[in-house]
Amino acid sequence: MSANLLINVDHIATLRNARRAARPDPVEAAFRAEAAGADGIVVHLREDRRHITERDVRLLAQTVSGTFDLECSTDAEVVAVCADVAPALATLVPERREEVTTEGGLDVRAAPDRLASVADRLRDAGTDTVAFFVDPVPAQVEAAARVGADAVELHTGDFAEASASASQQDALARLSEAAAAAEAAGLRVHAGHGLDYRNVGPFFEAAGPCVAEVSIGFAVVARAAMVGFEQAVREMARLVKG
Ligand code: PXP
Question: Residue 193 catalytic?
Fold first, then answer.
């Protein structure tokens, strides 16, 4: 196994914003994550700006040296910021204001035209890779390929939340099948949501061979509060990169 590890620093911004303060700064966290072995940085510019702000996005676009992945919905204002900074990777995600975190993948079959036009606009602006965040369902993966995605990010939330080993095995089988469908459709395969220090090994054993990149945030930020940010990233990098 040797996938790229992208670290999501949204929750550094959550902590900063809890006191409407200047620190901790997600830009500093991104710098430290890359120094500790991350291959890139992810942030989600939410419509309500609850954690990452436009200032963060613009500074990160200039300072991240590996892959900069900007997660965004198809909201016109957010897409305009994304097109303006043209990150190397843009991941399109669904968004509901009242959710605590992204709850499910995009329903690509319900909004193919909107997704295709946003993907085209971002590529025209200079983004290399447009990924669609989808549930591990072959029909969604195939729809993403038809609509013109370059990559899919497979939602690992069901796997991460499965408590019984039987349901965990089912979730892994679904991820493995969806990853194979993505590879067969010529899409790059990313994965993320709820991956942590305990479940990332089993995930790679079962579904990993064609997964090029994982995006991990909460578990690393939570561990960073205990052992420091660089140490938390180094520990995760050892698990992801072997
Ligand atoms: N991928 C996507 C599309 C997400 O929305 C999130 C959560 O922000 C992640 C990955 C990372 O999830 P986690 O913070 O649980 O590691």
Answer: yes
pLDDT tens column, 170-204? 999 999 999 999 999 999 999 999 999 999 999 99
Evaluate whether 10 touches 33 at the Cβ level (below 8 Å): no
Catalytic residue among 11, 44, 155, 190: 44
What is the C-alpha separation between 72 and 196, in angstroms, rounded?
A: 23
Burial of 90 (0-12, 13-18, 19+ CB in 10 A): buried
Residues 128-166 pLDDT 10s: 999 999 999 999 999 999 999 999 999 999 999 998 888
Tokens for 129, please give them: 């890779």
User: What's the N-to-C CA distance of the chain in angstroms?
Assistant: 6
pLDDT (tens digit per residue) in 80-103: 999 999 999 999 999 877 777 777
Specify the CATH number for the domain of residue 214: 3.20.20.70
- CA 116 to the chain's CA centroid: 19
CA 84 – CA 86 distance, rounded (Å): 6
Which residue CA neighbors atom 5 of ligand 1 most closely? 102
Nearest CA-CA partner of 189 in 168, 170, 203, 171: 203
